[in-house]
Amino acid sequence: MSAYTVIPAVLLWITVVVRLLVPVKNAAQRHFLVGLIVLAIGCTLEIPAVGAYLQERIVGANTVHLIKHITVVLAASAIWEVARHIALPQPEAATHRARRAAITLTAVCAMIGMFLLAPVHGEPLPGLTNAAVGEPVLLAYWTAYLAVLAVVVVGIVRVAISALHTFPPGALRTGVLWMGAGALIAMAYCLNKAVYLVTATAGLTSDHADLMETVQALLLALTVFGFVVGCLWPIAVRWPVIRHIIAYTTYRRLHPVWQAYLRGEPGIAFGATGRPTPYDVELRLYRRVIEIRDGMLAARAYANPGHRGLAVREARRITRRDPDLVGEAAWLETGRRAKLRGLEPSADSQVGISGGATVTDEARVLTRIARSWSIVQTVADRIDDMTDARKTST
C-alpha cells in the first residue's frame, strides 16, 4: 500500500468530514464539496487493496474502472464550477450552469449504458483501453468519456489563464493555477488516449500496449493530483503545519533584503534573535516585515526623487517580472547606499512607496522583491554609475 495513494485519500476524507460540518451557503460551496467527495472516492479506489476488495467482493468485474472514470468527470465538472465562481463575476459564473450539468450527467449516463453493454464483465482487466480496440461499444464509451472530459478541462484551463493574469498572489490564485495544471495534464491524457485508440483500431500501433496503459494511468494520476492540490491548497494554508512552513520559507527568503536594510539602518531591529522555531516563526516573520519596511522608509529619505522614474525604466529594460516594483526597490537601494556613504538626505523624502494593506500583503510584496533582489542590485548599480558619470562630466 503506497503512501502516495493513501495520504491524499486520508487528507481528502478528513477535509470532507470537516466541510460537512460547515453549512453550505451557495452553489460554489456545494460544487466544492461535491468535488472533494468524488476526488476522495477516486483516490480511495486508487489504493490497490481497496480496488481489489471492491472488485472481488462487492461490485462486478471492472466496475471499479467505470467508477474511477465517473469520479474524474464529476470532479472535473465540479472544479470547473468552483474555478468559474472564483475567477468570474457571479452572473457570468452562473451562466449556462444548468446546461453544463445536463451535459455532464448525460455523458455519465451514456458511459454507464455503454459499460453495461460492453463484453467486459467476465474477468478483471488492468484497464478498459486495450479491451476497446475493435470493440464498438467500448469505443463509444471512451468517446463519451473523453469528449465530456475534454470540454470540461479546456474550460478549467481558460479560467486558470484568466486567473494567472488578473488574480493577485495568494492561496486562491495558487489553487486555481493547480487546477489549471491538472487540467492541462488531463488534456494530454485525453489526446494520448484518443490517439492510441484510433491508431490501435486502425492496426497502426506497436506491441507496447502495456506501456501505453502505464503512461495513461500516470497522466490520469497526475491530473487527479493537480485537482486535489488545487482544491486543498486554499484550505491547507490555514493548517498550522503548512502555515508554519510557509512562514519559515518566507522568513528565510526575506533574509537578504532584511540584512541589507539592517546594515543601512541598524536601529530597525527589534532585538537579537536566534534560530526561528515552529512556535515563533510567524511572530518573527511579522517583525521581519516591519523591520524591512522601516528600513525602506529610512532609505527613502536619501533616495533622489528624480531617479525613481529612471530606475523603473531601467528595470523594464532588464526584466518583465514586476518591473515597476523592482525599479522602485532599486531606487530605494540607491538611497540605502547613499546613507551608507554618509550623504545628506534628499530635499523631498515623502515620495510614496508600494506596500500592502496588511502584514500578509506586505510579506507578499517583499517576497516579490526578494525573488528579484539580484536584479534590484543590477538596476541600482546602473543608476549609481549614471550618477557618477554625470558628476564626473560636470
UniProtKB/TrEMBL annotation:
It comes from the Bacteria. InterPro entries: DUF6545, MAB_1171c-like. The keyword Transmembrane helix applies. Pfam families: DUF6545. The chain crosses the membrane at residues 6-22, 34-54, 66-83, 103-122, 142-164, 176-197, 217-236. Residues 248-373 form the DUF6545 domain. Keywords: Membrane, Transmembrane, Transmembrane helix. The keyword ATP-binding does not apply. This is DUF6545 domain-containing protein. It comes from Phytoactinopolyspora halophila.
